[in-house]
């Protein structure tokens, strides 16, 4: 996509839990390398990196000696990266605006020390412990010869348990069905190649089966199939209309 158009800027979902999800750190760096400003949305994962942090993750931040709140830690992790142009954040009070402005004016790219990165890793570990599958999204198991998007599937599976069934199922449909090639867990042929590379020793084949069964119950299967048919038809129509498919400036 970056190469398909002369973009003025781009906007991605990015936070320390989504470092390797969607565009992720690779997308951030690729856009910045082309001189495209990158605006960050969901820096707190819809507030989950504040409200839904497990108590031991909160305690880790409190005891870290940084005097940062969970929100400030998440923001500073972003501001530490020179490729980030702007961080969007919903704020509900003047107090929040003041706190965020103060932190933003103090933080600088490249400020993070080994201690800060270690804190982020510990907090991530604590969050991952509460998840259904302890997948960190590192993608060492990829690529799968059948095109199964393993980290994305586990992310959706975990999301189902941490943020509600519909949140996980909606993302699963987006990341697996609404792609050019389907990446459903059911495409797995159990070759076992991925498991040899997983540093977390996850029984990937077994967990994929469980994830697919829960993420795609029958009514969802039917709905997803209909959405996919509609998407492919629309793409076909767009491709056959050269003016619509290539709107270059
Ligand atoms: S076991 Fe399944 S998911 Fe893993 S590499 Fe083989 S086909 Fe892909
Ligand atoms: S290698 Fe393991 S931890 Fe990393 S993305 Fe794959 S399943 Fe998740």
Would you spell out the secondary-structure blueprint of this structure?
Blueprint: E1 10-13, H1 24-33, E2 38-41, H2 55-62, H3 70-79, E3 86-87, H4 94-106, H5 114-129, H6 150-163, H7 165-177, H8 204-215, H9 218-239, H10 242-245
Parallel strand pairs: 1-2, 2-3
The structure holds iron/sulfur cluster (2 copies).
Describe this structure in words.
The structure is a single chain. The protein has 249 residues and is mainly alpha-helical. The protein folds into two domains: 10-129, Alpha-Beta Barrel (TIM Barrel); 150-239, no CATH class. The chain has helices at residues 24-33, 55-62, 70-79, 94-106, 114-129, 150-163, 165-177, 204-215, 218-239, 242-245; strands at 10-13, 38-41, 86-87. The longest helix has 22 residues, at 218-239. It is globular, with a radius of gyration of 20 Å. Bound molecules: iron/sulfur cluster (2 copies). One iron/sulfur cluster binds next to helix 8.
Q: Please tell me the CATH architecture of the largest domain by its name.
A: Alpha-Beta Barrel
Ligand species: iron/sulfur cluster
Average pLDDT works out at: 88
* Biggest β-sheet description: 3 strands, parallel
Number of domains: 2
């Amino acid at each position: 996509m970056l190469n398909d158009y002369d973009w003025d800027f781009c906007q991605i979902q990015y936070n320390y839990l989504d470092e390797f999800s969607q565009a992720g750190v690779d997308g951030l760096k690729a856009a910045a390398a082309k001189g495209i400003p990158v605006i960050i949305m969901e820096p707190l994962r819809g507030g989950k990196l504040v409200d839904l942090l497990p108590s031991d993750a909160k305690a880790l931040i409190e005891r870290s000696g940084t005097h940062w709140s969970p929100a400030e830690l998440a923001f500073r992790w972003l501001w530490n990266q020179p490729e980030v142009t702007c961080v969007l954040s919903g704020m509900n009070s003047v107090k929040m605006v003041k706190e965020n402005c103060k932190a933003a004016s103090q933080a600088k790219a490249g400020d993070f020390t080994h201690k800060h990165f270690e804190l982020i890793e510990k907090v991530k570990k604590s969050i991952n412990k509460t998840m259904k599958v302890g997948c960190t999204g590192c993608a060492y198991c990829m690529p799968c010869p059948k095109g199964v998007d393993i980290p994305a599937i586990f992310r959706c599976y975990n999301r189902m348990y941490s943020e509600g069934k519909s949140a996980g199922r909606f993302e699963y449909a987006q990341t697996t069905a609404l792609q050019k090639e389907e990446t459903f867990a059911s495409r797995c042929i159990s070759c076992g190649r991925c498991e040899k590379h997983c540093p977390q020793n996850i029984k990937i084949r077994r967990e994929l089966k469980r994830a697919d069964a829960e993420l795609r119950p029958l009514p969802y299967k039917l709905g997803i199939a209909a959405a996919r048919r509609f998407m492919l038809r629309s793409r076909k129509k767009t491709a056959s209309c050269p003016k619509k498919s290539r709107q270059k400036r």
